[in-house]
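--- STAGE predict ---
source: upstream dedup step, 1 unique chain passed
mode: sequence only
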Amino acid sequence: MRELLPPAHREAQPRLGDDRRAVVLVLLDGLGDRPQSDLGGLTPLEAARLPVLDQLARSGACGLHVPFGPGRAAASEVAHWAIFGYEGIPFCGRAVLEALGHGLPVDDSDPRLYAALRTSQTRDGVVWITGRAEPDDEADARRLLAALPQASGDQIFELEWVRLGEGILRLPGAGAEAAAVSDSDPFFEDRQPWLLPRALAGAGPPAAAAAARLAEYLRAARLVLVGHETNAGRIRNGLPALDTLTTKWAGARRPLPSFQDRVGVSGAMVTSSALYRGFARLLTMESIDIATDPDPGRDLAARLAAAAALLQAGATFVHVHIKVVDEAAHSRRPDAKRRVLEALDPALAALLEPPFSGAVVAVTGDHATPSSGGVIHTGDPTPLLVVGGAVRPDAVTDFSEAGCASGSIGTIRAADLLPLLLGHANRARFLGARATAEDTLGFPDHPEPLLPA
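--- STAGE serialize ---
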Protein backbone atom coordinates (compact mmCIF):
# COMPACT_ATOMS: atom_id res chain seq x y z
CA MET A 1 0.00 0.00 0.00
CA ARG A 2 1.29 3.46 -0.90
CA GLU A 3 2.10 5.81 1.95
CA LEU A 4 -0.54 8.52 2.31
CA LEU A 5 0.54 12.11 1.80
CA PRO A 6 -0.45 14.72 4.40
CA PRO A 7 -3.54 16.82 3.67
CA ALA A 8 -3.09 20.04 1.78
CA HIS A 9 -3.81 23.36 3.45
CA ARG A 10 -7.29 23.33 5.02
CA GLU A 11 -8.08 19.92 3.51
CA ALA A 12 -9.39 17.15 5.77
CA GLN A 13 -8.48 14.07 3.72
CA PRO A 14 -4.97 12.92 2.76
CA ARG A 15 -3.79 13.90 -0.69
CA LEU A 16 -4.10 11.20 -3.31
CA GLY A 17 -0.91 9.51 -4.41
CA ASP A 18 -0.31 9.09 -8.14
CA ASP A 19 -0.64 5.38 -8.93
CA ARG A 20 -1.64 5.64 -12.58
CA ARG A 21 -0.47 2.81 -14.83
CA ALA A 22 0.12 2.32 -18.52
CA VAL A 23 -2.29 0.26 -20.62
CA VAL A 24 -1.36 -2.41 -23.17
CA LEU A 25 -3.89 -3.93 -25.58
CA VAL A 26 -2.79 -7.09 -27.39
CA LEU A 27 -5.15 -7.57 -30.31
CA LEU A 28 -5.22 -11.05 -31.88
CA ASP A 29 -7.05 -10.32 -35.13
CA GLY A 30 -10.04 -12.59 -35.79
CA LEU A 31 -9.66 -14.36 -32.44
CA GLY A 32 -13.27 -15.48 -31.91
CA ASP A 33 -14.74 -18.50 -33.67
CA ARG A 34 -17.63 -20.95 -33.73
CA PRO A 35 -17.82 -24.61 -32.66
CA GLN A 36 -16.11 -26.72 -35.33
CA SER A 37 -17.02 -30.30 -36.13
CA ASP A 38 -13.39 -30.95 -37.11
CA LEU A 39 -12.45 -30.14 -33.50
CA GLY A 40 -15.14 -32.24 -31.84
CA GLY A 41 -17.57 -29.34 -31.48
CA LEU A 42 -15.02 -27.02 -29.89
CA THR A 43 -13.74 -23.69 -31.15
CA PRO A 44 -10.02 -23.47 -32.01
CA LEU A 45 -9.44 -21.62 -28.72
CA GLU A 46 -11.32 -24.26 -26.75
CA ALA A 47 -9.38 -27.05 -28.47
CA ALA A 48 -5.96 -25.41 -28.13
CA ARG A 49 -3.50 -25.95 -25.30
CA LEU A 50 -2.75 -22.42 -24.07
CA PRO A 51 -0.99 -22.54 -20.68
CA VAL A 52 0.16 -18.89 -20.74
CA LEU A 53 -3.19 -17.44 -21.75
CA ASP A 54 -4.86 -19.64 -19.13
CA GLN A 55 -2.43 -18.35 -16.51
CA LEU A 56 -3.20 -14.77 -17.50
CA ALA A 57 -6.92 -15.56 -17.27
CA ARG A 58 -6.48 -16.94 -13.76
CA SER A 59 -4.58 -13.81 -12.75
CA GLY A 60 -7.18 -11.35 -14.02
CA ALA A 61 -10.78 -10.81 -14.98
CA CYS A 62 -12.42 -12.12 -18.13
CA GLY A 63 -15.43 -11.52 -20.31
CA LEU A 64 -16.56 -11.37 -23.91
CA HIS A 65 -16.02 -8.67 -26.52
CA VAL A 66 -18.83 -8.14 -29.04
CA PRO A 67 -17.75 -4.97 -30.86
CA PHE A 68 -21.15 -3.67 -31.99
CA GLY A 69 -23.62 -5.98 -30.31
CA PRO A 70 -24.95 -9.47 -31.07
CA GLY A 71 -24.89 -10.57 -34.68
CA ARG A 72 -23.19 -7.46 -36.06
CA ALA A 73 -20.12 -8.56 -38.05
CA ALA A 74 -17.34 -5.99 -37.89
CA ALA A 75 -14.47 -5.25 -40.24
CA SER A 76 -11.17 -4.61 -38.46
CA GLU A 77 -11.07 -0.92 -39.36
CA VAL A 78 -14.50 -0.03 -37.98
CA ALA A 79 -13.90 -2.13 -34.85
CA HIS A 80 -10.64 -0.29 -34.21
CA TRP A 81 -12.29 3.09 -34.83
CA ALA A 82 -14.55 2.31 -31.86
CA ILE A 83 -11.80 0.65 -29.80
CA PHE A 84 -9.64 3.78 -30.10
CA GLY A 85 -12.49 5.94 -28.78
CA TYR A 86 -13.95 7.42 -31.98
CA GLU A 87 -17.41 5.86 -32.02
CA GLY A 88 -19.88 8.66 -32.71
CA ILE A 89 -17.38 10.53 -34.93
CA PRO A 90 -17.86 9.88 -38.68
CA PHE A 91 -15.45 7.19 -39.86
CA CYS A 92 -12.88 8.45 -42.36
CA GLY A 93 -13.13 5.33 -44.55
CA ARG A 94 -10.56 2.60 -44.94
CA ALA A 95 -9.29 4.00 -48.24
CA VAL A 96 -8.00 7.05 -46.34
CA LEU A 97 -6.22 4.82 -43.84
CA GLU A 98 -4.70 2.69 -46.61
CA ALA A 99 -3.49 5.82 -48.41
CA LEU A 100 -1.87 7.18 -45.25
CA GLY A 101 -0.37 3.78 -44.46
CA HIS A 102 1.22 3.62 -47.90
CA GLY A 103 2.78 7.01 -47.34
CA LEU A 104 0.52 9.00 -49.68
CA PRO A 105 -0.31 12.58 -48.74
CA VAL A 106 -3.90 12.99 -47.55
CA ASP A 107 -4.01 16.64 -46.58
CA ASP A 108 -7.37 17.54 -48.09
CA SER A 109 -10.99 16.40 -47.89
CA ASP A 110 -11.16 14.89 -51.38
CA PRO A 111 -12.94 11.51 -51.56
CA ARG A 112 -10.70 8.50 -51.83
CA LEU A 113 -11.60 4.94 -52.79
CA TYR A 114 -9.59 1.73 -52.86
CA ALA A 115 -9.41 0.46 -56.45
CA ALA A 116 -8.30 -2.92 -57.79
CA LEU A 117 -7.88 -4.62 -61.16
CA ARG A 118 -9.91 -7.82 -61.26
CA THR A 119 -10.61 -10.70 -63.62
CA SER A 120 -14.22 -11.29 -64.60
CA GLN A 121 -16.82 -13.22 -66.58
CA THR A 122 -19.98 -11.86 -68.18
CA ARG A 123 -23.14 -13.94 -67.80
CA ASP A 124 -26.50 -12.75 -69.14
CA GLY A 125 -25.12 -9.23 -69.49
CA VAL A 126 -23.96 -9.06 -65.85
CA VAL A 127 -20.28 -8.86 -64.89
CA TRP A 128 -19.10 -11.30 -62.21
CA ILE A 129 -15.70 -10.88 -60.57
CA THR A 130 -13.59 -14.05 -60.68
CA GLY A 131 -10.14 -13.18 -59.30
CA ARG A 132 -7.38 -10.63 -58.85
CA ALA A 133 -3.83 -9.91 -59.99
CA GLU A 134 -1.05 -12.26 -58.88
CA PRO A 135 2.64 -11.44 -58.31
CA ASP A 136 3.56 -12.52 -61.86
CA ASP A 137 0.99 -10.04 -63.20
CA GLU A 138 2.69 -6.90 -61.88
CA ALA A 139 4.07 -5.64 -65.21
CA ASP A 140 0.74 -6.21 -66.94
CA ALA A 141 -1.15 -4.56 -64.09
CA ARG A 142 1.03 -1.44 -64.22
CA ARG A 143 0.48 -1.08 -67.98
CA LEU A 144 -3.26 -1.48 -67.59
CA LEU A 145 -3.58 0.97 -64.72
CA ALA A 146 -1.57 3.54 -66.69
CA ALA A 147 -4.06 3.25 -69.57
CA LEU A 148 -7.17 4.03 -67.53
CA PRO A 149 -9.15 7.20 -68.26
CA GLN A 150 -8.48 10.26 -66.12
CA ALA A 151 -11.92 11.86 -66.12
CA SER A 152 -15.63 11.23 -66.43
CA GLY A 153 -17.60 14.28 -67.50
CA ASP A 154 -16.39 17.18 -65.39
CA GLN A 155 -14.95 14.94 -62.66
CA ILE A 156 -11.23 14.13 -62.67
CA PHE A 157 -10.15 10.71 -61.35
CA GLU A 158 -6.57 10.34 -60.12
CA LEU A 159 -5.35 6.78 -59.49
CA GLU A 160 -2.10 6.19 -57.61
CA TRP A 161 -0.72 2.65 -57.62
CA VAL A 162 0.17 1.30 -54.15
CA ARG A 163 0.67 -2.44 -54.66
CA LEU A 164 -0.01 -5.28 -57.07
CA GLY A 165 -2.90 -4.19 -59.27
CA GLU A 166 -4.33 -1.93 -56.56
CA GLY A 167 -4.34 1.77 -55.88
CA ILE A 168 -6.01 4.77 -54.30
CA LEU A 169 -8.57 6.55 -56.50
CA ARG A 170 -8.99 10.25 -55.69
CA LEU A 171 -11.77 12.60 -56.82
CA PRO A 172 -10.13 16.05 -56.67
CA GLY A 173 -12.42 18.89 -55.65
CA ALA A 174 -15.50 16.74 -55.10
CA GLY A 175 -15.67 17.48 -51.37
CA ALA A 176 -16.01 15.22 -48.36
CA GLU A 177 -19.78 14.78 -48.78
CA ALA A 178 -19.15 13.11 -52.14
CA ALA A 179 -17.39 10.21 -50.37
CA ALA A 180 -20.73 8.76 -49.21
CA VAL A 181 -20.91 6.19 -52.02
CA SER A 182 -21.28 2.42 -51.94
CA ASP A 183 -18.81 -0.21 -53.17
CA SER A 184 -18.59 -1.61 -56.68
CA ASP A 185 -16.39 -4.46 -55.38
CA PRO A 186 -18.43 -7.49 -54.25
CA PHE A 187 -17.12 -9.08 -51.06
CA PHE A 188 -18.80 -12.35 -52.03
CA GLU A 189 -17.84 -12.81 -55.67
CA ASP A 190 -20.04 -15.88 -56.22
CA ARG A 191 -23.12 -14.20 -54.69
CA GLN A 192 -22.90 -10.57 -55.80
CA PRO A 193 -21.92 -9.16 -59.22
CA TRP A 194 -19.88 -6.08 -60.07
CA LEU A 195 -21.94 -3.55 -58.18
CA LEU A 196 -23.47 -0.23 -59.19
CA PRO A 197 -22.09 2.57 -56.97
CA ARG A 198 -24.93 4.39 -55.21
CA ALA A 199 -25.15 7.36 -52.89
CA LEU A 200 -25.54 6.09 -49.35
CA ALA A 201 -28.94 6.45 -47.71
CA GLY A 202 -29.36 9.96 -46.34
CA ALA A 203 -26.46 11.38 -48.35
CA GLY A 204 -26.93 14.61 -50.26
CA PRO A 205 -26.60 15.70 -53.90
CA PRO A 206 -22.76 15.66 -53.91
CA ALA A 207 -22.77 11.91 -53.17
CA ALA A 208 -25.42 11.25 -55.82
CA ALA A 209 -23.38 13.14 -58.41
CA ALA A 210 -20.17 11.36 -57.40
CA ALA A 211 -21.83 7.94 -57.58
CA ALA A 212 -23.14 8.66 -61.08
CA ARG A 213 -19.75 9.90 -62.27
CA LEU A 214 -18.01 6.92 -60.67
CA ALA A 215 -20.32 4.48 -62.46
CA GLU A 216 -19.55 6.21 -65.77
CA TYR A 217 -15.84 6.11 -65.03
CA LEU A 218 -15.86 2.38 -64.16
CA ARG A 219 -17.78 1.54 -67.33
CA ALA A 220 -15.32 3.57 -69.40
CA ALA A 221 -12.38 1.92 -67.62
CA ARG A 222 -13.75 -1.52 -68.42
CA LEU A 223 -14.04 -0.64 -72.11
CA VAL A 224 -10.38 0.41 -72.12
CA LEU A 225 -9.28 -2.71 -70.26
CA VAL A 226 -11.27 -5.15 -72.39
CA GLY A 227 -9.78 -3.68 -75.57
CA HIS A 228 -6.21 -3.28 -74.33
CA GLU A 229 -3.44 -5.19 -76.11
CA THR A 230 -2.01 -6.31 -72.78
CA ASN A 231 -5.19 -8.23 -72.03
CA ALA A 232 -5.34 -9.58 -75.57
CA GLY A 233 -1.84 -10.95 -75.04
CA ARG A 234 -2.84 -12.47 -71.72
CA ILE A 235 -5.73 -14.28 -73.36
CA ARG A 236 -3.45 -15.59 -76.13
CA ASN A 237 -1.13 -16.93 -73.41
CA GLY A 238 -3.95 -18.67 -71.57
CA LEU A 239 -4.16 -16.09 -68.77
CA PRO A 240 -7.35 -14.39 -67.59
CA ALA A 241 -7.77 -10.77 -68.61
CA LEU A 242 -7.51 -8.12 -65.88
CA ASP A 243 -10.48 -6.38 -67.43
CA THR A 244 -12.51 -4.83 -64.61
CA LEU A 245 -11.79 -2.09 -62.07
CA THR A 246 -13.56 -2.27 -58.72
CA THR A 247 -13.80 0.28 -55.91
CA LYS A 248 -14.56 0.07 -52.19
CA TRP A 249 -13.94 1.67 -48.78
CA ALA A 250 -14.76 5.22 -49.89
CA GLY A 251 -14.06 7.98 -47.41
CA ALA A 252 -12.61 11.41 -46.81
CA ARG A 253 -10.33 12.96 -44.23
CA ARG A 254 -12.05 15.47 -41.97
CA PRO A 255 -10.79 17.44 -38.95
CA LEU A 256 -10.28 14.95 -36.14
CA PRO A 257 -8.89 15.11 -32.59
CA SER A 258 -5.63 13.25 -32.06
CA PHE A 259 -5.62 10.16 -29.86
CA GLN A 260 -4.02 12.24 -27.10
CA ASP A 261 -6.79 14.84 -27.30
CA ARG A 262 -9.62 12.32 -27.67
CA VAL A 263 -8.56 9.85 -24.98
CA GLY A 264 -6.43 12.05 -22.73
CA VAL A 265 -3.27 9.92 -22.79
CA SER A 266 -0.43 9.37 -25.23
CA GLY A 267 -0.89 6.45 -27.61
CA ALA A 268 1.47 4.20 -29.53
CA MET A 269 1.12 1.25 -31.89
CA VAL A 270 3.13 -1.73 -33.08
CA THR A 271 2.13 -2.15 -36.73
CA SER A 272 2.90 -4.26 -39.79
CA SER A 273 0.32 -3.29 -42.42
CA ALA A 274 -0.79 -0.17 -44.22
CA LEU A 275 -4.11 -0.14 -42.37
CA TYR A 276 -2.54 0.21 -38.92
CA ARG A 277 0.25 2.50 -40.11
CA GLY A 278 -2.59 4.64 -41.44
CA PHE A 279 -4.30 4.65 -38.05
CA ALA A 280 -1.05 5.75 -36.40
CA ARG A 281 -0.61 8.63 -38.86
CA LEU A 282 -4.25 9.71 -38.72
CA LEU A 283 -4.49 9.70 -34.92
CA THR A 284 -0.94 11.07 -34.37
CA MET A 285 0.24 8.01 -32.44
CA GLU A 286 3.84 6.90 -32.12
CA SER A 287 4.50 3.63 -33.91
CA ILE A 288 7.05 0.94 -34.58
CA ASP A 289 6.53 -1.03 -37.78
CA ILE A 290 7.59 -4.68 -37.64
CA ALA A 291 8.02 -6.77 -40.78
CA THR A 292 5.97 -9.94 -40.43
CA ASP A 293 8.00 -12.99 -39.46
CA PRO A 294 6.67 -16.27 -40.95
CA ASP A 295 7.13 -17.90 -37.53
CA PRO A 296 4.07 -16.80 -35.49
CA GLY A 297 5.70 -17.10 -32.09
CA ARG A 298 8.82 -15.24 -33.15
CA ASP A 299 6.67 -12.59 -34.82
CA LEU A 300 4.63 -11.93 -31.68
CA ALA A 301 7.76 -11.89 -29.52
CA ALA A 302 9.22 -9.15 -31.72
CA ARG A 303 6.01 -7.14 -31.46
CA LEU A 304 5.93 -7.41 -27.68
CA ALA A 305 9.59 -6.36 -27.51
CA ALA A 306 8.67 -3.27 -29.55
CA ALA A 307 5.73 -2.60 -27.23
CA ALA A 308 8.05 -2.81 -24.23
CA ALA A 309 10.33 -0.23 -25.86
CA LEU A 310 7.36 2.09 -26.41
CA LEU A 311 6.33 1.74 -22.76
CA GLN A 312 9.85 2.46 -21.58
CA ALA A 313 9.92 5.53 -23.84
CA GLY A 314 6.88 6.91 -22.02
CA ALA A 315 3.82 5.76 -23.98
CA THR A 316 0.73 5.46 -21.81
CA PHE A 317 -1.35 3.29 -24.15
CA VAL A 318 0.24 0.74 -26.48
CA HIS A 319 -1.68 -1.27 -29.09
CA VAL A 320 -0.11 -4.50 -30.39
CA HIS A 321 -1.75 -6.07 -33.43
CA ILE A 322 -1.04 -9.44 -35.04
CA LYS A 323 -2.86 -10.71 -38.13
CA VAL A 324 -1.85 -14.36 -38.29
CA VAL A 325 -4.86 -15.70 -36.32
CA ASP A 326 -7.28 -14.10 -38.77
CA GLU A 327 -5.28 -15.42 -41.73
CA ALA A 328 -5.40 -18.95 -40.34
CA ALA A 329 -9.17 -18.69 -39.91
CA HIS A 330 -9.60 -17.49 -43.51
CA SER A 331 -7.81 -20.65 -44.68
CA ARG A 332 -10.98 -22.49 -43.60
CA ARG A 333 -8.94 -25.02 -41.63
CA PRO A 334 -9.96 -25.00 -37.95
CA ASP A 335 -6.92 -27.01 -36.91
CA ALA A 336 -4.62 -24.49 -38.60
CA LYS A 337 -6.11 -21.74 -36.42
CA ARG A 338 -5.69 -23.95 -33.33
CA ARG A 339 -2.01 -24.54 -34.18
CA VAL A 340 -1.37 -20.83 -34.71
CA LEU A 341 -2.87 -20.03 -31.32
CA GLU A 342 -0.65 -22.63 -29.67
CA ALA A 343 2.39 -21.20 -31.48
CA LEU A 344 1.61 -17.70 -30.17
CA ASP A 345 0.98 -18.71 -26.57
CA PRO A 346 4.60 -19.03 -25.33
CA ALA A 347 5.46 -15.51 -26.54
CA LEU A 348 2.69 -14.09 -24.37
CA ALA A 349 4.70 -15.08 -21.28
CA ALA A 350 6.40 -11.69 -21.73
CA LEU A 351 3.19 -10.12 -20.42
CA LEU A 352 3.93 -11.64 -17.00
CA GLU A 353 7.25 -9.76 -16.76
CA PRO A 354 8.31 -6.09 -16.59
CA PRO A 355 7.45 -3.67 -18.05
CA PHE A 356 4.10 -5.33 -18.77
CA SER A 357 3.63 -6.60 -15.21
CA GLY A 358 3.49 -2.97 -14.07
CA ALA A 359 0.75 -2.09 -16.57
CA VAL A 360 -2.88 -3.01 -17.15
CA VAL A 361 -2.82 -5.59 -19.97
CA ALA A 362 -5.72 -6.83 -22.08
CA VAL A 363 -5.84 -9.61 -24.67
CA THR A 364 -8.79 -9.92 -27.07
CA GLY A 365 -9.75 -9.80 -30.74
CA ASP A 366 -11.38 -7.16 -32.92
CA HIS A 367 -14.00 -9.58 -34.26
CA ALA A 368 -14.73 -13.25 -34.75
CA THR A 369 -13.46 -14.99 -37.89
CA PRO A 370 -15.00 -18.47 -38.13
CA SER A 371 -12.63 -21.07 -39.54
CA SER A 372 -15.38 -22.81 -41.52
CA GLY A 373 -18.60 -21.89 -43.26
CA GLY A 374 -19.63 -19.33 -45.84
CA VAL A 375 -18.98 -16.11 -43.90
CA ILE A 376 -16.06 -13.70 -43.59
CA HIS A 377 -16.44 -12.17 -40.12
CA THR A 378 -19.29 -12.65 -37.66
CA GLY A 379 -20.75 -11.00 -34.58
CA ASP A 380 -19.95 -14.00 -32.41
CA PRO A 381 -18.27 -13.12 -29.08
CA THR A 382 -14.51 -12.95 -28.72
CA PRO A 383 -12.82 -13.75 -25.38
CA LEU A 384 -11.34 -10.89 -23.36
CA LEU A 385 -8.94 -10.96 -20.43
CA VAL A 386 -7.67 -8.02 -18.37
CA VAL A 387 -4.88 -8.30 -15.82
CA GLY A 388 -2.98 -5.86 -13.61
CA GLY A 389 -3.72 -2.60 -11.83
CA ALA A 390 -7.04 -2.56 -9.99
CA VAL A 391 -8.34 -5.72 -11.70
CA ARG A 392 -9.98 -8.17 -9.31
CA PRO A 393 -9.36 -11.79 -10.46
CA ASP A 394 -12.47 -13.82 -11.10
CA ALA A 395 -13.03 -17.58 -11.28
CA VAL A 396 -12.17 -18.04 -14.97
CA THR A 397 -9.29 -20.45 -15.58
CA ASP A 398 -9.66 -21.13 -19.32
CA PHE A 399 -9.12 -18.44 -21.96
CA SER A 400 -11.72 -19.43 -24.54
CA GLU A 401 -15.22 -18.51 -25.62
CA ALA A 402 -16.80 -20.95 -23.18
CA GLY A 403 -14.36 -20.18 -20.38
CA CYS A 404 -14.67 -16.39 -20.56
CA ALA A 405 -18.47 -16.38 -20.85
CA SER A 406 -18.78 -16.63 -17.06
CA GLY A 407 -16.19 -13.92 -16.34
CA SER A 408 -16.90 -10.91 -14.15
CA ILE A 409 -16.48 -8.37 -16.97
CA GLY A 410 -19.52 -9.71 -18.77
CA THR A 411 -20.10 -8.77 -22.42
CA ILE A 412 -18.81 -5.40 -23.58
CA ARG A 413 -18.78 -3.43 -26.82
CA ALA A 414 -15.72 -2.02 -28.58
CA ALA A 415 -16.45 1.52 -27.39
CA ASP A 416 -16.36 0.36 -23.76
CA LEU A 417 -13.01 -1.42 -23.95
CA LEU A 418 -10.70 1.56 -23.54
CA PRO A 419 -12.71 3.15 -20.69
CA LEU A 420 -12.63 -0.22 -18.91
CA LEU A 421 -8.85 -0.46 -19.21
CA LEU A 422 -8.26 3.17 -18.25
CA GLY A 423 -10.42 2.67 -15.17
CA HIS A 424 -8.36 -0.31 -14.01
CA ALA A 425 -5.22 1.77 -14.62
CA ASN A 426 -6.55 4.52 -12.30
CA ARG A 427 -6.89 6.81 -15.32
CA ALA A 428 -10.67 7.18 -15.53
CA ARG A 429 -11.84 10.71 -16.18
CA PHE A 430 -13.88 11.96 -13.24
CA LEU A 431 -17.23 12.68 -14.86
CA GLY A 432 -18.23 16.20 -13.99
CA ALA A 433 -14.68 17.53 -14.10
CA ARG A 434 -13.56 19.12 -17.38
CA ALA A 435 -9.83 19.76 -17.73
CA THR A 436 -9.89 20.03 -21.53
CA ALA A 437 -12.24 21.09 -24.31
CA GLU A 438 -12.50 17.48 -25.52
CA ASP A 439 -14.76 15.04 -23.68
CA THR A 440 -11.86 12.66 -23.04
CA LEU A 441 -12.29 8.97 -22.21
CA GLY A 442 -9.54 9.05 -19.59
CA PHE A 443 -7.92 11.41 -17.11
CA PRO A 444 -6.02 13.95 -19.26
CA ASP A 445 -2.27 13.71 -18.76
CA HIS A 446 -1.36 17.05 -20.30
CA PRO A 447 -4.12 19.69 -20.04
CA GLU A 448 -3.15 23.16 -21.13
CA PRO A 449 -1.97 25.30 -18.20
CA LEU A 450 -3.19 28.83 -17.56
CA LEU A 451 0.04 30.80 -17.54
CA PRO A 452 0.38 33.87 -15.34
CA ALA A 453 0.42 37.31 -16.94
